[in-house]
Structure formats: C-alpha cells, structure tokens
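Input record (one chain):
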Amino acid sequence: SFSVVETKAPAVLPVHLACPGCGLRTEITAFNVYRCRDCDEVYFVDRWAHPISLKPGRRDQPPPVKSAKIELPADVNLLAGLRVFVTTLLREHGYNAELVNDMELASDEAVTNVIEHAYRYDTKRSFQVELQMDRKAVRIIIRDNGEPFVPGQAPKVDLDQHIAERRTGGLGVHLMHTMMDQVEHRREGDQNVLILTRAAVRA
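The corresponding structure, as predicted from the sequence alone:
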C-alpha cells in the first residue's frame, strides 16, 4: 500500500485574486465559485487560490457603467452620509484604498463648497451626488441649483503663504485638482455641475 502526502499547503484566506476574464481583483473569503462584478465571468477558486474559469464573461465588451445616486440636504452636519455612500460603494467594487480616500476627500470638499458658496448654508436646499464606476475611471458628479460658480474666480493657492500665515481651510479647489485626474465645471440650465474623475485603480 502507499499513501499520498500533500506537500503544498492550501492558501491562507482571505486573498485578493484577479478575475481570469477581465482582471478585476476581488477579495476571496472561501474556496468557492464566484461571478465577476465587471464582466460576469464565472470561476472557481481552488484551495491553492487558483482561479479556474467555468463560464466566460464579456471578455471583448466594455462593462456597463455602474452608477448610484444620492440626494442630501445642504447641511454640513450630514456630510457623514455622503462619505459613507462614496466609500462603501467604491470598496464593494474593489477599488484600492488610495483611490477611495481621495474620492472621499474630494467629494467632501466639493460638497462643502456647494453648501457654503452656492447655498449660503441654507439647509432647506439640497444637492445630488452621482457615483459612476467602470473599468477605466471613477466619476463623482455633483449637481446643485445654487448661485452660478465661475472656476476662474477661485483664487490660486500660494502654499508657502498659506503655511506661513497658518491658515485653516481654503484649500478645497486646490485639493480637488491635486487628487483628481480631471475636474470639470459647467452650467446646465439653472444647475451647477461638477465632475470629478479619477483613473480606476483596483485593490
């Protein structure tokens, strides 16, 4: 008689693995069957953390844009709801920590500006935030119907002077442009529309 001795230890969970179809990285918490959120590929993860394709997904087609919207009152005391909305969705869809943190801060700064400048702290007003996610980019679109915003009127920040004078605040627009790949302002009818775009980076 003979016995087989397993010489390769099983993987330690959780692990992050790439979908064999599109490469989306997903946290694996069990050796089981998974369906990719982006391309619908169905694959099995064995005990050594090998992803094995069982059913091909949309390998040659771009995934549909995933989007979610939230409407909030213009109240700085309720901004925690915005932060939870943004960070929860981005983490659930596998984006890395740096992108999640930057999108959270940029959206917080943008909405604070809406509340302060477009609405003058009028808590009876509201604004809408839409989060769009696809394989190439993440976009946050903020709409308000407050006073028109003219990007060129925002003063440029002198960081040396800012530090020397020990100022607090006033860096919102500068931070948005620093953290985002694209910041676009436009006026649509009676609405201000701000689009914050960041190239997608998965965890």
